[in-house]
Amino acid sequence: MTQLLNGATPLPHLGIIGVAGEDAASFLQGQLTQDFALLGLSEARLAAFCTAKGRMQASFVGFKRSHTEILLIVSRDILAPTLKRLSMFVLRAKAKLRDATAEFELYGLAGEPAVRIAPDLQEPWTRAEVGPASVIRLYPADGQARSLWVAPVGEAAPDGPALSHEHWLWGEVRSGIATITAPIVEAFVPQMLNYESVGGVNFKKGCYPGQEVVARSQFRGTLKRRAYLAHAPAPLQAGQELFHASDASQPCGLVAQAAAAPEGGWDAIVSIQIAAFEGGGLTAGGTEGPVLSLRPPPYPLLADV
């Protein structure tokens, strides 16, 4: 495990939306599930951009490069439509949005390099400046520290042995925190991916699209799906339907994110009905599909806000 998740790798599957201007934070405050108005320079935020029905159409790791510029790290396959959608709401706000992907180098660090580059970062969603680079501590994967490294183009890559991109993607799955990609756009409210338990939702901030639905799911006990870790002997993919032995006619959930496991098979983050986790067979793609084994997420779920 230590060897598999130890090193540095470029992250070409991710892109960056830049939001600049004196109203950058207040604009995002009105659009996303997290509190950007109180975001400090030593912090980052996991956040979702929801529809009016509370469904996640994008997720971000966001941080301030300065008091007037915020960078949002997003899956590259949904960057363009997300940028277009967000830009529709700028109106009179003094904020300019752009695709800033080409302006920055983006690396993932795991294991010893993640600790060495910013040893003072201990908790997820904390940020440090290391020269011109921003380093953001993520949730660990199987106990291994992980960080994002973001620096202007032209800066030397972070030190560390080469880590394969495939192993980084696997570590993303093992962290239990799913990133919204094209196959699962508008498939989940944030709690279906446990976002409220990993710092992705702030229930004390002001309004944003879908807030009433997200709050109702939390406080009225209407949430019936959660995210768990799963393993299967055959390939899994985001958006794939899951079926429980008790009802072969209706899917009980979806694969949110999946990656090949180094020791064989596939690991995934799955969002399923809570009852399906409590027992019975679970298969992917249909009742004759590969059987999944399940385990709880690698972090405690938030019972009460």
Describe this structure in words.
By secondary structure, the protein is α+β, with helices and mostly antiparallel strands. It contains 6 helices and 16 strands. The chain folds into 2 domains: 169 residues, 2-Layer Sandwich (Gyrase A, domain 2); 77 residues, Elongation Factor Tu (Ef-tu), domain 3 (Beta Barrel), CATH 2.40.30.110. Strands 15-12-13-14-11-16 form a 6-stranded antiparallel β-sheet. The chain has a 5-stranded antiparallel β-sheet with strand order 1-7-10-9-8. It is globular.
Write the layout of secondary structure elements.
Layout lengths: L6 E4 L3 E7 L3 H6 L14 E7 L5 E11 L2 E7 L3 H9 L8 E4 L4 E7 L1 H6 L9 E4 L2 E5 L8 E7 L12 H11 L35 H9 L5 E8 L8 E4 L8 E8 L5 E8 H4 L4 E3 L8 E3 L10
Antiparallel strand pairs: 1-7, 2-5, 2-6, 3-4, 4-5, 7-10, 8-9, 9-10, 11-14, 11-16, 12-13, 12-15, 13-14
Short description:
With 305 residues, this protein is an alpha+beta fold.
Task: From the structure above, extract its key features.
305 residues, alpha+beta, five-stranded antiparallel sheet, 15% helix, 32% strand
Residue share in helices?
Answer: 10-25%
Strand content: 25-35%
N- to C-terminal separation?
A: 34 Å
Total strand count, please?
16
Largest sheet: 6 strands, antiparallel
